[in-house]
Amino acid sequence: MNNISLLQSISGLLAGIALIVILTARYRIHAFFALLLAGLLAGLIFQLPLTDILTTIKTGFGQIIGSLGLLIILGTTLGLILEHTGSTTVLAAYVLRQTGTGRSPLALNIIGYIVGMPIFCDSGFIVLSGLNKALAWRSGVSMVIMASSLATGLYAVHCMMPPHPGITAATGVIQADVGRVMLFGLLIALPASFCGYAWSLYAGRCLPVITPGTMETDATPEALPSVWMAVLPIAVPILLIALRSVFTLEQNSSSPLLQILNLTGTPEIAITIGIVLALPGLRKGQGEGFGKILQEGAEKAAGILVIIGGGGAFGAILAKAGIGAHIADNPAITGTGILLPFLVTAILKTAQGSSTVAIITAASIIHPLLPALGLHTPNGSLLCVLAMGAGSMMVSHTNDAYFWAISRFSGLEVKDMLRVYTIATLIMGIVAMCCVFLLSLLLL
Predict the structure, then answer these.
(1) Which domain of life is it from (predicted)?
(2) 217 in a domain, yes or no?
């Protein structure tokens, strides 16, 4: 591994982010090319050979596409079918009847918090993006408020609660109790999620109102599906993924039922089942055929995928900087207790984009330091994992695939995402860490 100084690491990170913002917001350069140029600039600041920069960019691009590509294509297709059948319009009207227009962002935040318990934030946002757009359209609330409210609800539990992979892996590395991490993580995610919503509401109101122009539907009013039929294509995939998450925590996988749940609960399979459940509504549609919707879904997903792939490439370059290792190797800060796991994870998250990678990497760095930090007891291990979960929330920005999923599926500009959603994740991480600190006063 090359020797990259802390100054180089920070300089490359800041220069890359600044270049992305300037190119996308000022000069309207497509985000994919802005991300590639930012990765190249950061690599040059890190003094990496050009061949290494190219290899790292290709690897990062390929890994993100490989992990999210099929999911995004299928999720986009499901969303289009729900739009064309009028299902999202039906659901939006139902939610507004229950909550009222003024509380629709809070309703989406709560929905995100609940849905996010069993499934990845990426999957949850993609599945609910059609409902999000329909609610924004019918309520007149700005899309940036609605999207950020939903995204922060999903994100809070993704970072703080097993069975999500990052915090689950960290729980194993640190050897904390899974049940206690799940319980306290769920509780801490609640105020973090609400604060994310509160900031989204405040900051979004300071921006021009952005709502979808029209919602595409081929169904006549009398042919719209019932609420029950409209919710099935969304609820069934979420339920299947939830059951898979719960039962895969158990080691016994020999049962045929568990094997079926393991297969059908895979996000790609679950969303495919959602597509099948949504198909009967197309019989009531007028105009658009199924083949044309599939083509539109593939074309729309392609534009999203190249940007997410660019984010993966940029993140892979930043991961070369090893910022977290620079912090952990400094003996002057190893006496900071639960603050160190939080800081290392937050720096790794900000540098390379993935909450999962950040918390897993931080766990391997922090584990040998537990005795020195005074966190080698059962309660100390619990607090360490929760502190890393809080750190993995901040800061989600242009090198995070979830950031681009929110932006592209909601049609939001980068500058608005940074002002609303990115700052929301910063606040969420700080709030979650404050909750962990208060908990430490009781447990340590």
Answers:
(1) Bacteria
(2) no
140: left (phi over 0), alpha (psi -120 to 50) or beta: left
In a domain, 218, yes or no: no
CB 366 within 8 A of CB 341: yes
Tell me the sheet residues that pair with 219: 285
Following DSSP, what letter does each residue of 115-127 receive, concatenated?
HTTTS-HHHHHHH
CB 233 within 8 A of CB 294: no
Residue 282 lies in a domain: yes
List the pLDDT tens digit at each of the 444 positions of the chain: 457 787 888 788 788 878 877 887 678 787 789 889 988 998 999 899 999 999 999 998 888 788 778 877 887 788 778 777 877 667 777 777 787 777 889 988 988 888 777 667 887 788 788 888 888 887 788 899 999 999 999 999 899 987 677 887 788 778 888 778 888 898 999 999 999 999 999 998 877 666 665 555 555 555 678 888 888 888 888 788 777 766 765 555 567 888 888 888 887 888 899 889 888 877 644 445 778 888 888 887 887 788 778 877 887 887 777 666 666 666 665 567 889 899 888 988 887 777 877 887 778 778 777 887 788 898 999 999 999 999 999 889 888 889 988 998 888 888 889 999 999 999 999 999 999 999 999 987
pTM of the model: 0.72
**Cα 15 from Cα 74, distance rounded (Å):** 35
Domain hosting 237: range is 7-208+225-443
Q: Can you read off the two tokens belonging to residue 209?
A: 């109102």
